[in-house]
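Below is a filled-in request sheet from our internal design queue. Each sheet records the structural input a requester submitted and the sequence that came back. We keep these sheets so that new team members can see what a complete request looks like end to end.

REQUESTER: design group, bay 2
PRIORITY: normal
MODE: inverse folding
CHAIN LENGTH: 226
BACKBONE (tokenized):
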């Protein structure tokens, strides 16, 4: 059974309105002292009256001390949960992209706070920025292996935001072997991608639509692709 993190009176309103972050000053530290939790520990977040608000994870050492992952207190962050969320994200991407070059998982937007996964065909770049996701990083790799049978998975955990969570900085190929050259196609243009050693996850896949817009021009009042 998961531990419980209780909020102060009226501090549940933001969560009930759709927010997914809990700040340390919103926690009832008399009922549930933050010092009793481990970084990344899964918890049931509950209102001041004890009513469950959902499941998430906690980091007692940060201003954002808890992050809600599901409105259901019956779920746990495990491989089954990860698989379902990643598959849901995949379905959304397939509605907008006809080639396998995109941001597969985008943190809170896909219900996986602190997890970014960029897909470069058969190569996946993973960036973890929360203690909760760091705890299950092996499960993340395993789910990607099971779903995609990739050529390589590289952890790009060298962003400074990890330091706020008390996490070390590192970059490592955790599965398979990186190809000598990684080529992707973006809006009809091919690029060689420096995933290893490159900035952030190697490419700004979250800006694909912006790139497409930049290639458009107006002819006689009509927007056309260049």
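RETURNED SEQUENCE:
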């Amino acid at each position: 059974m998961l531990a419980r993190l209780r909020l102060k009176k009226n501090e549940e309103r933001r969560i009930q309105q759709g927010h997914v972050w809990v700040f340390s000053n919103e926690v009832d530290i008399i009922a549930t002292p933050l010092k009793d939790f481990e970084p990344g520990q899964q918890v049931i977040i509950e209102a001041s009256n004890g009513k469950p608000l959902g499941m998430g994870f906690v980091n007692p050492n940060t201003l954002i001390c808890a992050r809600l992952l599901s409105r259901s207190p019956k779920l746990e962050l495990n491989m089954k949960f990860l698989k379902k969320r990643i598959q849901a994200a995949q379905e959304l991407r397939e509605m907008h992209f006809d080639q396998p070059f995109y941001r597969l998982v985008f943190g809170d937007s896909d219900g996986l706070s602190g997890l970014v996964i960029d897909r470069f065909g058969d190569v996946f770049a993973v960036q973890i920025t929360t203690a909760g996701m760091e705890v299950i990083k092996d499960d993340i790799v395993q789910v990607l292996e099971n779903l995609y049978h990739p050529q390589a998975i590289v952890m790009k955990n060298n962003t400074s935001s990890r330091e706020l969570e008390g996490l070390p900085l590192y970059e490592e190929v955790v599965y398979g072997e990186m190809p000598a050259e990684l080529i992707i196609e973006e809006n009809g243009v091919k690029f060689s991608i420096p995933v290893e050693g490159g900035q952030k996850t190697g490419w700004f896949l979250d800006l694909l639509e912006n790139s497409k817009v930049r290639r458009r021009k107006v002819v006689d009042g009509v927007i056309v692709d260049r």
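SHEET NOTES:
- Helices lie at 13-16, 79-94, 131-135, 137-148, 161-164, 208-214.
- The first strand starts at residue 3 and ends at 6.
FILED BY: M.R.
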